[in-house]
Amino acid sequence: MIFTLHGWSFSSSVWEGTPFSSANHLELPGHGESPFLSTDLPELSAEVASLLPNGVTLVGWSLGASVALLTAALYPQKVARLVLLAPTVKFSGVSQPEVVVKRFLKRLRRNFSEGVSFFREFCSEEAPPVGEKLNPERAVRLLESFCGLDLTRYASKVKAPCFIAVGDEDRVTCLEGAYGLFRVLPKATLRVLPGADHYTLLRRLSF
């Protein structure tokens, strides 16, 4: 069985038209009708694991990739294979300068809808306009947990084979984030997609 986890400010609709369109889609807290309560990523991974049967393929994009990796590291019986799309080993300080991250979080606190629109445009010119049901407080807390998380120590515990894909035009998690994670995962392969950005990566995948 295949389960997916989307990225921040998006929804399970991102999987339409991708190789994972028919998978079982999970939605992040603060997004849509998510059943999850915790906005702390390690705690959230426990909630995700509680919904999974043993031995699944877990696919995560962006922030969802961090949750997927945590689930595989902390609950290894649940995940037989990992697919991480546009992941990062650490968002603040690796993918983006810390000052940029802090400035964006303040921007979200001042005007959430404007900040989300800016982020979607930064992801890709092809990203759809905001149409998801978002809870501003929970969505921001989730993003704060993601920004401060260093996956290095968790990655070394992952037993499942892992496929990583990143676009060479990704301006969000960036090549540096994916390379950083690739270096610390025991069983990982990495594919860089030419001409793909943070969002269009999803539609240019092939297996």
Features:
207 residues, Rossmann fold, alpha/beta, single chain
Fold and architecture overview:
- With 207 residues, this protein is α/β, with parallel strands linked by helices.
- It has helices at 41-51, 63-74, 98-110, 112-123, 136-147, 152-155, 174-184; strands at residues 2-5, 24-26, 56-61, 79-85, 162-167, 188-193.
- It has a single domain, classed as Alpha/Beta hydrolase fold, catalytic domain (Rossmann fold).
- Helix 1 packs across helix 2 and helix 3 crosses helix 4 (112-123).
- The chain has seven helices and six strands; from the N terminus they run E-E-H-E-H-E-H-H-H-H-E-H-E.
- Helix content is 36%, strand content 15%.
- The mean pLDDT is 96.
- The radius of gyration is 15 Å and the shape is globular.
Which H/E pattern describes the elements?
A: EEHEHEHHHHEHE
Q: Assign the CATH topology.
A: Rossmann fold
How would you classify the helix and strand content by structural class? alpha/beta
Count of all domains: 1
Helix content: 25-40%
Q: Can you summarize the main beta sheet? A: 6 strands, parallel
Instruction: Give the overall form.
Output: globular
Distance between the termini: 16 Å
Rg, nearest Å: 15 Å
Strands in their spatial order, largest beta sheet: 2-1-3-4-5-6
CATH level-four homologous superfamily name? Alpha/Beta hydrolase fold, catalytic domain
Question: What fraction strand?
Answer: 15-25%
- Helix run count: 7
| Chain-averaged pLDDT | 96
**Model regions low in confidence, pLDDT < 50 over at least 5 residues:** none
InterPro entries: AB_hydrolase_1, AB_hydrolase_fold
Domain AB hydrolase-1: 5-202
Keywords: Hydrolase
Pfam families: Abhydrolase_6
